[in-house]
Amino acid sequence: MLTKTILAIETSCDETACSVIQVNLWGEPRANLKVRVLSSVVYSQILTHRKTQGVVPEVAAREHSVKIIPVIKKALLDAQTVLKCPKMSIKEFISKHIDYIAVTTNPGLFGSLLVGVETAKTLSYLYYKPIIPVNHIHGHLASVLSEKLTSPTGLSRKAQKELFPMLTLTVSGGHTNLVLSKKLGDYQIIGETLDDAAGEAFDKISKMLDLPYPGGVEVARMATEYIDKIKISELRSQNHNLELRFSFPRPMLNSKDFNFSFSGLKTAVYYQLRKMDNRCIKIMQRYICYEAQKAIVEVLVVKTMKAAEKYQVKTVGLAGGVASNVFLRKTLQDQISKIKYQKLRTVNCEPRTDFLVSPKNLCTDNATMIALSAGIDLSLRRNISSWDKVVASSN
Ligand code: KG4
Ligand code: ZN
Asked: Where does the record place the Gcp-like domain (predicted)?
């Protein structure tokens, strides 16, 4: 068995993150892999960007450059503690124990990516460690497999046979993708957003309602509060001249492809808000969040289920920041349970469609998912570069 240790760096947007993992590889050609996470440090810039209700790219890059070394240092010290190494300097630890440096190279904010990439290149050059460049989306996709990869048996070849073909919905602030994987490390985009990403829609609706950044969590919280306690009758009794029960469009719900579009939804919310005065918006904002969330989730779930059916996948995965949305997780889970049940009844065979969702701490940006993707690349013996071949790119 081969054991390799990876130091991974993620700075594509507004989280400065570093993780150290150990990967065990065995079998020919290294088809089985098992991961142990030694450390994971995430510094979130949320409080900085709350002031501007969104990420200002230059501010994000500047903050990455301040935090990157302390974050890497902490991840290395934590890993050293877990490994119970004899006392040694961080430099010695890198030389002796780190085999590869993984780093997010694309897509993302160019200035932010540059901080992580240049730091990784410097470490690679100084310590003679090869780089594994990682696509950020591949990181989100790998996060769905984290429980399998870190399980006592790891992601063996046999386990991979049961898992694939797999369809993963990746929903984040920058992306909304449906990705078909016929085998480990295979990524075929079968659908994507034509304009705003799902997370972006959440964030923009939140901003229109003057809720704090980042918007997804706030919209989800308000929607839950609506379900729990709002009384629409309160408003009705105040005699507002307003259509009370409105809903928002489900863009591209019935299109024949697996693409998405969320900019129309954002515009619909904007026009609805224009019809209302501030007091009315205040009273109705939980209902607006509830309806907007319902519209976004319905489109995501219906399209995912159609694609799962078409490609007869064995597993449906859910990843990205928006995957931490409880309503989305639950709705998708319910739909998958239904097809499982139908198959069981009609075909009278073992249900085949499983649901895998990233653990909550790996939904929003982190470096563990980047390390996991690099571990998959190692098992496939691909994507290993020297520092001078690695470049950051916003696409
Ligand atoms: O994956 P991520 O950390 O960054 C990108 O790669 O973009 O995702 C961040 C996005 C933001 O748009 C944020 O509002 C959204 O994920 N988000 C949520 C929730 N938590 C985070 N959206 C809906 N519901 C949530 N609970
Ligand atoms: Zn992300």
From this structure: 37-371
| CB contact at 8 A, 117 and 389 | no
DSSP classification of residue 360: G
pLDDT of residue 348: 56
Q: Tokens in use for 156?
A: 């063996």
Q: 42, 135 in Cβ contact below 8 A?
A: no
For residue 31, the model assigns a pLDDT of 81
- The verdict on whether omega for the bond into residue 214 sits within 30 degrees of 0, i.e. cis, is yes
pLDDT band at residue 231 using 50, 70 and 90 as cut-offs:
low
- pLDDT for 237 equals 55
CATH homologous superfamily of domain 2-156+365-389?
ATPase, nucleotide binding domain (3.30.420.40)
**Mean pLDDT for the chain?**
92
Please give the radius of gyration of the chain, using alpha carbons only, rounded to the nearest integer.
22
User: Is 171 known to sit in a ligand binding site?
Assistant: yes
User: Which residues are placed with Cβ below 5 angstroms of ligand 2, an ion?
Assistant: 172, 365
CATH architecture of 165-313+321-357: 2-Layer Sandwich (3.30)
* Minimal-distance CA residue to ligand 1 atom 3: 364
Pick from 217, 221, 366 the residue to mutate for probing ligand 1's pocket: most ligand atoms within 8 Å of its CB: 217
Q: Are the CB atoms for 131 and 8 separated by under 8 Å?
A: no
Domains of the chain, residue spans: 2-156+365-389, 165-313+321-357
pTM: 0.93
Atom of ligand 1 nearest to the CA of 214: 14
Cα of 199 vs centre of ligand 1, distance in Å, is 5
Q: How confident is the model at residue 235 (pLDDT cuts 50, 70, 90)?
A: low
The pLDDT assigned to 344 comes to 53
The more confidently predicted of residues 157 and 141 is 141
Q: Which amino acid, residue 133?
A: P
Q: What are phi and psi of 358, to 5 degrees?
A: -60, 140
